[in-house]
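Justification of resources, computational component.

The compute hours requested in this renewal are based largely on the per-chain cost of generating structure records like the one below. Each record pairs the submitted sequence with a full structure-token output. That output is archived, and it is also reused by downstream analysis tasks.
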Amino acid sequence: MRAAESLKLCRAKMPTTESVKEAVFSMIQFEIEDKNVLDLFAGSGQLGIEALSRGAKKCTFVENNKQAYNVIENNIKHCKLEQSARIVMSDACAFLS
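The structure output for this chain reads:
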């Protein structure tokens, strides 16, 4: 992948639809238990929270928007998942490099 294509991917940020989330977890449902999960461009944290609810050991949520970060924090508290969640305020591409 060229650098320009990679940069475009890092800038693209759209919420995951329910049908996409269901499809993803349908494919990985037997592989997720006791795994560490990375939720990049976390938004509301729905993918990472879903992974934790399905038995993932830990999830790192990466989000660079302060409002979204606060939403993730509140959602994690609401679901009582603080012990297995880590939220990082960072650009996803910078976090990976």
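Strands lie at 36-40, 58-63, 85-89. The longest strand covers residues 58-63.
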